[in-house]
Amino acid sequence: MIDDTYYMKQALKEAHKAFEDGEVPIGAVVVLNNQVIGRGHNQVERLNDCTAHAEMIALTAAFNTLGSKYLMEATLYVTVEPCLMCAGALYWSKIGRIVYAAADDKNSYRRATGERSPFHPKTKLEAGPCKEESLQLMKTFFEQKR
């Protein structure tokens, strides 16, 4: 059965790619009608671009797949709660739903907005599956860096 866990595991595969490349291990997939239409993982170091977050790359791939700048019926699955920059892009995409695995008290959009949502009013935001796997991958990454 294809469900949130299935798609979050797809996002985790992307996060593992980032980990292997020495990037902060965050991955994302955009899903529409039970089909992945965009995927991405952090490539900030590889591209020397502070905007090359997993969500941004997955969104761009989804826009290109659809030939549209809006994702009102799509869901983004991301392994860590979006930062403020990614939240802004998600707002403008009008994405229908965002599912994240792990909260990020240090770098999420909440650091700048508090509990006020920066997402489009129709966007549903949910904590989802694979929280422990995502947190462990992040913990391992930063332990290796120290």
TrEMBL record:
<dbReference type="InterPro" id="IPR002125">
    <property type="entry name" value="CMP_dCMP_dom"/>
</dbReference>
<comment type="function">
    <text>Catalyzes the deamination of adenosine to inosine at the wobble position 34 of tRNA(Arg2).</text>
</comment>
<dbReference type="InterPro" id="IPR028883">
    <property type="entry name" value="tRNA_aden_deaminase"/>
</dbReference>
<keyword id="KW-0378">Hydrolase</keyword>
<comment type="similarity">
    <text>Belongs to the cytidine and deoxycytidylate deaminase family. ADAT2 subfamily.</text>
</comment>
<feature type="binding site">
    <location>
        <position position="86"/>
    </location>
    <ligand>
        <name>Zn(2+)</name>
    </ligand>
</feature>
<dbReference type="Pfam" id="PF00383">
    <property type="entry name" value="dCMP_cyt_deam_1"/>
</dbReference>
<dbReference type="GO" id="GO:0008270">
    <property type="term" value="F:zinc ion binding"/>
</dbReference>
<keyword id="KW-0819">tRNA processing</keyword>
<feature type="binding site">
    <location>
        <position position="83"/>
    </location>
    <ligand>
        <name>Zn(2+)</name>
    </ligand>
</feature>
<dbReference type="InterPro" id="IPR016192">
    <property type="entry name" value="APOBEC/CMP_deaminase_Zn-bd"/>
</dbReference>
<dbReference type="InterPro" id="IPR016193">
    <property type="entry name" value="Cytidine_deaminase-like"/>
</dbReference>
<keyword id="KW-0862">Zinc</keyword>
<comment type="subunit">
    <text>Homodimer.</text>
</comment>
<dbReference type="GO" id="GO:0052717">
    <property type="term" value="F:tRNA-specific adenosine-34 deaminase activity"/>
</dbReference>
<feature type="domain" description="CMP/dCMP-type deaminase">
    <location>
        <begin position="2"/>
        <end position="112"/>
    </location>
</feature>
<feature type="binding site">
    <location>
        <position position="53"/>
    </location>
    <ligand>
        <name>Zn(2+)</name>
    </ligand>
</feature>
<protein>
    <recommendedName>
        <fullName>tRNA-specific adenosine deaminase</fullName>
        <ecNumber>3.5.4.33</ecNumber>
    </recommendedName>
</protein>
<keyword id="KW-0479">Metal-binding</keyword>
<feature type="active site" description="Proton donor">
    <location>
        <position position="55"/>
    </location>
</feature>
<dbReference type="GO" id="GO:0002100">
    <property type="term" value="P:tRNA wobble adenosine to inosine editing"/>
</dbReference>
